[in-house]
Amino acid sequence: MAPADGRPAYPALALFVAGQWLADAGGGRRVVLDPATEGVLGELPLADIAHVLAAAESAGRGFAVWRGHSALQRCTVLRRAAALMRERAAAMAAVLTMEQGKPAAEAQREVMLSADIIDFQAEEARRLYGHSVPPRVEGILSHQVNRHPVGPVAALTAWNFPVNLPARKLGAALAAGCSVVLKPAEETPASAMALVQCLLDAGLPPEVIQLVCGEPAPLSEALIAHPAIAKVSLTGSVAVGRRLAGLCARQGKRFSGELGGHAPVVVCEDADLDFVLALSVPAKFRNAGQVCASPIRFFVPRARHEAFVERFAAAARALRLGPGNDAATQMGPLTHARRLQDMADFIEDARAHGVRVVAGGRRDERPGYFFEPTVLADAPPASRVMRLEPFGPIAVINPYDTLDEAIAAANALPYGLGAYAFTRDLATAHRLGESLQVGMVGINHYGVSQPELPFGGIKASGEGVEMGAEGLLAYTEVRTLTVGRHG
What we know:
about 475 residues, alpha/beta, Aldehyde Dehydrogenase, Chain A, domain 2, 2 domains, globular
């Protein structure tokens, strides 16, 4: 039965292993909660180790089939899946909002952008070019350098973008000719189920895709150890990324990881504050700040700092919190209860370090995991919020005296995913683009995540990139073929 508010019913949850949807997989069950109400949405079956190993073995068989499909055949299936996602976008977005919490409009954009990602990688499959190298030795007819799919992939994704993150990995891996064992977050399984169903309905051979959920650590370790798995792709924390990268290294397997950041924003002397604020407040509180490239540390010229703080705080206070299915909601809940405690810990530490809490700083007292949009000012480098990613609705605004000082503060952390800056001066824009030590720099906008662009970080923020043509190459290996005359 559909809910009384007219939303689609939350689906019965299942895993997909060896070509079959499984309502039970031997590992027990886990409840999935609505973060806006704390009510139970459904029960997720969890895979035991035997089912995890069966998924890896099935992916091995699926790879033998899928790699034999031509690039045009793979492109056709993926484009059909993207079209199905667009047709089903409203229903997929409604389910996404139920289990993850973000406003309906954000959920709809996520589904549509995910379809665009898969579409782009589908087209890139037809341009997975090799090249020829002129021989230097007499009797050699040709040297060819070609790219081949790396093999079955274990794709491990997080809960903050439960359609987009799987789409990034599935689009590129499947376009390259790899099979995939997808492990989505246990908090948001139905969104991944809907994506997998689109692929199956588009004609993807069933054993090419697997979907498993379970206890993350033993499940991941079992997949990495399985001989069929050739590559691991993770979206997760730095700590988990380092542990899994070590496991892959010991197994001699390829690893790529998008491991989060702590994005700085440098507001220059010549920036238009109206323009900066109009872009920055929605960007900061999008998805309740649960975005790996979310702007967090704002550095503002001292003479303009207080005005910027006051206006940012006023805009944050004006945001309407509520359930994501309410059209008036501008910021939804955090996705699970653990995030509430983490936000409280950040605020407690900030107060202990003398940080000004200019707006928010408290849980919103209602059912659900709601935390007020929060603005902090004058945070010292030793405070927790200046050292660790809050991954929530917290912005920090600090003053600076010189641009060199702002750049040094922006680069002070070991993270290097995204950074942003606002200036009208072209020379300053290029200087910041060269100086900020991150994988992606946005000047005068926050839109660094696009299907056509590689997305990834440097330093502790990860290994490799997703999306763009470069994202496809990450699922391939280079092989050299030389042919000489016989006789």
